[in-house]
Amino acid sequence: MLENCRTAKERWGGVHQLIDRWLKERQELLVHYCDLSDTARDTASENLGKKLERLCQILVDYTSAGHFEIYEQLIQEAREFDDGGIELAGRIYPRISETTEVVLDFNERIDGKRPAESEMDDLMAELSRLGEALETRFELEDFLIEHLHNVHADKVPSSA
């Protein structure tokens, strides 16, 4: 029985650490997004291309971590607790995938290019669309974390 408690603690404690790291990456993404949005308004900025490239890099890393690490762990946890989480994830995941398409489209359109001054209005529109998609995505991700992971916190042995 003690071994089962350790195993659960290690398994779900590891998920908690993974989520914490991912949420820190989200914060970094938001900082770069806001910084880029401010820079994009200044069409004379020499750093715009570098900032676009960095944002795209963080966007792809964050999105990939969500799909290939976090969501898989949340689904595994939902399976093990078998309390309706799989069905919930099945309803939420397609909506998250829609935001993934916006992220990938933005990344593909930018593709390391610094837009010409004549393209700045288009860039601002794309940044706005990206921002809206990210806001939706973060809300959906937070919902999944709350309902597939945090809801089980009292069922997993604490570190005390």
Overview of this structure, please?
It holds the Pfam family Rsd_AlgQ. This is Regulator of sigma D. It comes from Marinobacter segnicrescens. The chain is an all-alpha fold. The chain has a single domain, classed as Up-down Bundle (Four Helix Bundle (Hemerythrin (Met), subunit A)), CATH 1.20.120.1370. The protein contains 4 helices and no strands.
In short:
Helix content is 81%, strand content 0%.
Proportion of helical residues: over 70%
CATH class categorisation: Mainly Alpha
Ranges where pLDDT stays below 50 over 5 or more residues in a row are 1-13
User: Element order, helices and strands?
Assistant: HHHH
CATH topology: Four Helix Bundle (Hemerythrin (Met), subunit A)
* Average pLDDT for all residues: 83
Biggest sheet details:
none
Structural class category: mainly alpha
- CATH architecture assignment name: Up-down Bundle
What do we call the CATH homologous superfamily?
A: Regulator of RNA polymerase sigma(70) subunit, domain 4
Total number of helices: 4
Query: What's the assembly state of these chains?
Result: single chain
Number of β-strand runs: 0
Query: What percent of residues are in strands?
Result: under 5%
